[in-house]
Amino acid sequence: MQRIRGLILAVALAGCSQHQAADEALVAELTTAARATLMALPSTERPGERELGERVELIAAHAVPERIRLVRAGTLTQALLLDDLHATLLRRAADDANQPPQLLTMLQHAPAPWTTGQCLLFDALLHQYQEEAALIKPHGGLETGAR
Fold it and tell me: CB 125: neighbour CB atoms within 10 A?
C-alpha cells in the first residue's frame, strides 16, 4: 500500500512540474558569464559557488534554443536584447511591483560589449522574468506556476 502511495505521489509530482533539463555546456557558459558579471559586487554580496550553480541551472532552464542560436549567430545582439528588456518593462501592469532580477539589471548596466555568454544569460534571465510576470507563456513544457 505504501509503495502504491509513493508511486502515485511520484506520478503526480512529475505531472505538476515538468522542467526541461538544462544543457551542461550551456550551464557552464552561463555560470562563467554570471561570475564575471557578479565581480562588480563586493565579495561579501556574491553568492557562493553552490548557490550560483543552482541559480544558473534554473536560469538556463528558461533559455530558448532558437534564441540561443540567434545569439550565437550574432543576430540577436546586445542592443536588441536591451530593446527587449525595455519593451518588457513597458508591458508590465501599472501596479506590478516586481522588479527584474538583480543579475539582469547588473547585465543591463555592464560595460559593452557583452560576451556571448552574457548575452545568453541576459536572454534567459529576461525570459524567466517575462514568464514570472505572466507576460509570456512558459516554453518547452516548463511550468512556473505563473498565470
Answer: 27
* Orientation of helix 78-91 relative to helix 116-132, angle to 10°: 10
pTM for this predicted structure? 0.78
Residue 38: count of CB within 10 angstroms of its CB: 16
Considering the chain, what is the average pLDDT of its residues? 82
Q: Give dist(CA 73, CA 86) in Å, integer.
A: 23
DSSP state string for the chain: -HHHHHHHHHHHHHHH---PPPPHHHHHHHHHHHHHHHTTS-GGGSPPHHHHHHHHHHHHTT--HHHHHHHHHTSS-HHHHHHHHHHHHHHS-TT--PPPPHHHHHHHTSPSSPPHHHHHHHHHHHHHHHHHTTSSPPPTT------
Query: What is the per-residue pLDDT for 117?
Result: 97
What pLDDT shows up at residue 11? Answer: 33
Encoded amino acid at 112, one letter: A
Of the pLDDT bands very low, low, confident and very high (cuts 50, 70, 90), residue 3 is: very low
Rounded to 10 degrees, the C-alpha dihedral 72/78/81/82 comes to 170
CA 71 to chain centre: 15
